[in-house]
Amino acid sequence: MTNSAPDWNEIPEAEFRATIRECIENECPAELRYHPYRFPPEVTMPWYKALHRRNFIAPGWPVEYGGMGLNPSRHLIFIEEMEAMGTPWLHDAGVRNLGPAIIAWGTEEQKAYYLPRMHAGEHIWCQGYSEPSAGSDLASLQCDGRLDGENVIINGQKIWTTSAHVATHMFGLIRTDRSGKKQEGISFMLIDMSLPGITVRPIANLGGHPDFCEVFFDNVVVPQSCILGEVNQGWKVARSLLGFERIWAGSPRRAMKVLRQLRRELETQGLLDDPLWADRFAKASFDALDAQDMYTQFADLVRTDGKVGVEISALKIWSTSIFQNLSEMLLEVTGSRSTLSTSGEDDLLAPYYESRAPTIFAGTNEVHLNILARSVLGLAKSE
Amino acid sequence: MTNSAPDWNEIPEAEFRATIRECIENECPAELRYHPYRFPPEVTMPWYKALHRRNFIAPGWPVEYGGMGLNPSRHLIFIEEMEAMGTPWLHDAGVRNLGPAIIAWGTEEQKAYYLPRMHAGEHIWCQGYSEPSAGSDLASLQCDGRLDGENVIINGQKIWTTSAHVATHMFGLIRTDRSGKKQEGISFMLIDMSLPGITVRPIANLGGHPDFCEVFFDNVVVPQSCILGEVNQGWKVARSLLGFERIWAGSPRRAMKVLRQLRRELETQGLLDDPLWADRFAKASFDALDAQDMYTQFADLVRTDGKVGVEISALKIWSTSIFQNLSEMLLEVTGSRSTLSTSGEDDLLAPYYESRAPTIFAGTNEVHLNILARSVLGLAKSE
Amino acid sequence: MTIVDPQTAEMLRETVAKHCERHADGALIRASRGDVPGALAADVATMAELGWLAVSVPEDHGGLGLGVSATGIIAEGLSGCYSSDPLTGLFLGARALVHAQESDGLLAQVVEGSATPVLAWQENAHDFASPLPATEYRNGTVSGTKRWVASAAQASHFVVSAREDGRDVLVLVDASSDGVSLSFGTRADGTPISELALTSAPSTVIARGSDATRALRRTLDEGTILVAAELMGHIDRMMKLVLEHLNTRKQFGKVIGSFQALQHRASNMFVHQRLTRSVLTTTLGCADLITDPVEFGQRAARLRARLNDTTQLVMRESIQLFGAMGITDENELSLHIKRCLSLLGYLGNSTEQRRYWTALSAQSARTGDTN
Amino acid sequence: MTIVDPQTAEMLRETVAKHCERHADGALIRASRGDVPGALAADVATMAELGWLAVSVPEDHGGLGLGVSATGIIAEGLSGCYSSDPLTGLFLGARALVHAQESDGLLAQVVEGSATPVLAWQENAHDFASPLPATEYRNGTVSGTKRWVASAAQASHFVVSAREDGRDVLVLVDASSDGVSLSFGTRADGTPISELALTSAPSTVIARGSDATRALRRTLDEGTILVAAELMGHIDRMMKLVLEHLNTRKQFGKVIGSFQALQHRASNMFVHQRLTRSVLTTTLGCADLITDPVEFGQRAARLRARLNDTTQLVMRESIQLFGAMGITDENELSLHIKRCLSLLGYLGNSTEQRRYWTALSAQSARTGDTN
């Protein structure tokens, strides 16, 4: 890691943007760009490695850990430039999601071991939360971890584990104590997927891609040093991480991507001046641009206060909903072409398929509506 | 009442329509037509009387009671012609709503006394169901009727009683027994509003008109012969009447009226060919015309089976919702003109105000959604 | 043309339901994606045997003399096989011949399944409201490219819309002729859809000028009604799956269908489903009797727009209410979703239907009547 | 121009809140409907005294040199009086002078409240996106009819948009001049709005050609932001009333706010409220610093469209969740509803804002940049 980087928050915006663009142009091959789905990690690894070399892989991390230390508005610009040039969706749950949690909760040993390896793309992480009977009601998870000397013996199952079939590691919630309330007795564990007793079954998603998996644990032995935070206190770690995840889950970047695709369509069809489509496009643009205003505000709050308030559910609900609306509008404007399965940049169905998951994952939008009603609006519990 | 009328269901449609139009042209003065709000009864009484004379006042009643005996499609045409020519909204809850209930449940004496008088406009009826603590939860009504020999002594209050300030009679639900379940012990009573102890306070609605009232009962003595159906069995009578009311409440006639106003606006502004407004207008038209298809089907079912299934809640929800949507679209298409309070046919705010009540009255749309979930979709009770 | 009587309707409904019970095969559909001809609800021989190809052929050609009212019942029912293919493709071909009053014996073969004409009319993605082919007919041959040709793999003939000296014509092309070449794309549901390249292909004119224009328009309007009928079937089936899910899936210790917020969502879906059913029933109950092209086109457009809109709503809400299960390819819901995605933009999406309806309104305003 | 600093902003907010606590008077508003000048949040003297008229006047004219960012705070707060009148009317007049760089001392009088110029720009119901006045200026007099002139009853002068030899001009007319006549209509909230008839009224040109065009455009865009800010206040207050109602009204033996279906409705309203608040905060936080007219116009248009759409949603849902109480004129909610109805179509409704935004996009595409 080089230490000679400029202060990315201080250099002029134009220069900052130019730096990112230069990096993409030189390091991200054209065949990786503007692809609607996620490539397998080996395909995108050269690009990942390049970001790693330049210390661009973890823009939100502090500089001392190889991050760029970007403030939220710069972070947004970073994402904006990446999206505008169609850089591929990476397997970066580690740097994006787990990294900040390790920085906050990890022991020095954990930091020293995990952070550089996820930074380098040597470890690919997946998140193991959901179980067949613990979806919206996550706290009722059952996947069993028996404390046994230095180790934890894991038995049970996870499901909807994104990218488990290509991950080297999983950060997961494991029930290590059944004596207390259901939020208690859960540990946040860092699990090597190559351990004996782990079986992964990919599940095809609507787009026909193996995006998420079932993961089965059969007497998997994990050392207790792989618990992040304290044993049985995993819920706390997971909740703190939810903050970051919810900012990410509420980002309008995916809606913005469809908006650009929509605009290209209208331009190609000569409909930008058609009063009907101009009105619909303006409305769609407002929906996405307004989401950006909201996103920036929440991101600013996170930076200022260091925490995300419950109001952020509103951002997640809005951004994921408009992603769906825009994907449906794209089908409408393309008429009979919308019925065809194609691939690459012209894939009109991909946004439709891709936009179905975000309203369900990271807490269904219905769960977030409950949260708002209870915690923000102060309405009485519904039972 | 004349008995020489043709069979209105059999004569050719064109002739039927012409007959109605002729009646309107000759009997309904221009100054009464295309008025957005309800006139006081004395203003519309000459027109009411004319309909009475021609036996056109109760189109849905059997011929033997002075009705036209119209089948649903003819009944729709009847309403369509009336609406198209802007005939005023009458105080006709009696003939429209109570009449069929008296025909179904009344004693010969009740039929002989009430039917001709409401037919002639001599009695003007209002419906007294809601109370301050019994809105959506109607069965919990408290207005007290103590059985006392031949009489019932009424004490308590009704609210949201449409037209109580101009009505001569109220058909109301009165609690005459408190020993059983809350749906039991209610009697359906026909109450003369001129009785001592009745006080009426009009409540101004959003449009500034005294459309509904509070009605207070202070030791009002009503003979038991004014109970329709059996004592304590009023819920059954009210439910049977709900069928008629729900067909009426689900009629798209009000949405159609706004659709026509919208069309006039677009025509005047030269926007019928504008791609944006043409698309919106087509969508609005589909919403209303589709509602007519649904309405006709339900009306047919009523005629065939003699009863309304619970599915009819769908019609009520749809027709009242699109009435609101159309009223909002009318504001949008009229730009700055929409901000002005005017009167008569050009009143742009009237549809907005008028469309707020139907989603609340005759069972809030939320109550109807509950009914559908429970009784049509078979979902489990929510507590 | 007459409207199907209740007894025949019921018989059709039962036959189709039985067929679906026996032949619905999600695994086969998944395995056949991208193949030609791909999974079918029934092959041509079976459809002929069941009498489904005879339904919309006039009696003097050996058919049943019914129309879209009866075929709509079959299309709706075949949603139980997750697709009605190749019913709609064959219907369009046969109806084009009927409306063009073609009479040299081909329709009799349609009834038997020995001739399978298919309509090739579309060239651009947004042709539905006002098709104006670039395909040219001259001196017995036709040249041009047609796209979104459904069931082309089954076609014995193509009924092709073209222009001759600036006027519409409908011509008949033998599928095995020189100058006829097919290529296949894949739809959202994995079934093929074709591009038909015609290079001086030998052809016979079956309708000219306003006769051709009228015949094509009526055929397309009927086709869009048929698609609407199939969509209704998918809506009902998606609703059924969702309600089953709501009544069985538990979270927070109770079935999720007991949560009032989800109940209202389901009820709202039902409101649209019920509305849509009314419009379909009304339309199928009168369509074949309507002779005025404006009235027919407007009814069809309004019906189809409603079906499309409700389908979109039910797809979106079904997936959401299913939760993570809803976004896998492994459940039954996904088969309906993908079929619907293949149909929504076929023969006119909602926006196109509204544009078409508006154009007809303007046309009718010019000639006097409205609505 | 500078952006209001947090301290000043807070001070303004508090002053306005205190003012509303003392002066909000629903009964007076109901009693004054149809009157001229009708109920006001504060009269001109009070507004001047509180410094509200000085806020947006440049410092070299004795003002505070702030702009729409600070005035927006006042407008939003005055929703606590159910209306901000005559703030917006006076703001528009003053800002037109500012942007026209009028400098003969009138702005100094604005600060004191001794001059109250009001903008008269609109002639037709849909002028917002591209106003093109029919009003004519020639040789020192102006003739034409202006409509939807807010706060005309308070006007000492009118800033009038007109055409001179086919070019835009802004002219100043003394309200007491010959040839100036006012008539009053009533808005949904019962307050007056005026038609201004000018018949060869003596007038002074304050800006010509592109200067006039630019000054008017900037003023209108600022005005629409101010309306947006007031709407935000009404949204928050309607939400507050609804939540109070949900937490107190009982049906079926429990507070209706405990019904999950209603909770989701309320939460959905909150999603829109929160989104809208973000857009407003972002806009007020940068508006006065934006010099590019395309960027400014697009920001203003997007903000206003969001405010209008959310207001419509919150009005509709508030009334519904209030039940029968929601459709009476007797509760506090109705005062906000009626004020919103008076504002939604003033200075551009959503459709007009989107059209304006689109036109700016096209303009910006022509000159190079997008968004």
UniProtKB/TrEMBL annotation, chains C, D:
Q: Which domain of life is it from?
A: Bacteria
Q: Where's the Acyl-CoA dehydrogenase/oxidase C-terminal domain?
A: 216-354
Q: Which organism is it from?
A: Nitratireductor aestuarii
User: Which family is this protein grouped under?
Assistant: Belongs to the acyl-CoA dehydrogenase family.
The Acyl-CoA dehydrogenase/oxidase N-terminal domain covers: 8-83
Query: Can the keyword Flavoprotein be found in this entry's annotation?
Result: yes
Q: What is this protein called?
A: Acyl-CoA dehydrogenase
Cofactor entry: FAD
